[in-house]
Amino acid sequence: MFNTLNEYRVAAERHYQNSGYTFDKDNLSKIVAVMNHAFAQYSRVFAFRVDLRFPDNLFTRMLSEGSSRYHGAVLKAFFAELEKLFVLDQLSQATNGKRVRKTAIRYVWAREQTAEAVVPHYHLMFFLNGDAYCSLGRFKSENMNLANKLRVAWHRAVFEADVSIDFCRRRGLVELSEKGQHEVFSGDPVAIKKVLLHAAYLAKKESKRRGEGYQCFGGSNL
Predict the structure, then answer these.
(1) Model pLDDT for residues 132-166, shown as the tens digit of each residue
(2) How far is CA 156 from the centre of its chain?
(3) The domain containing residue 98 runs over which residues?
(4) How many folded domains does the chain comprise?
């Protein structure tokens, strides 16, 4: 853990120095707060990053141009759909006589849009109960693992007609990385710093269109 917010900012700038990123201290503070809330409830946390993209079609473009609230509404719907899939896991565990392992959905998100992009995209970092989920699972699996839960939840949120696992995986709107997964224990400061530096990418000032009537960064309040 970093001793001060300024130490965190300096470490993030050093970590991403090849890209020349600068970082918003309020955003970094939110990342630390969300992670601390997770560790206050769970001794083991599963942290991972996911990138969410909108389908590039006429429907999305029309909604993007018509309302600045559309993308935020889709993100809210995504979390609601993900929560439903987590509840189904819990029901399955209870039905099969297994211990029910719940998790609060804690996260930070960043909305980015380059100068040439028609629609924005989202970067997210999740902090879940490590006893409930400790891996995204195999990315090519046909089972409803965590990776596929994320894919299906996003496709439902953006009103894709086909929300089958196979289609969602091939569509590529949800980007995941094997290296973007961290199983972290509360007493491991080295691992915690690694997660914070990974999450700091969301707090970079570049690629965020500020002052256009919508929020560029946020997170859970749990």
Answers:
(1) 999 999 999 999 999 999 999 999 999 887 889 99
(2) 16
(3) 5-219
(4) 1
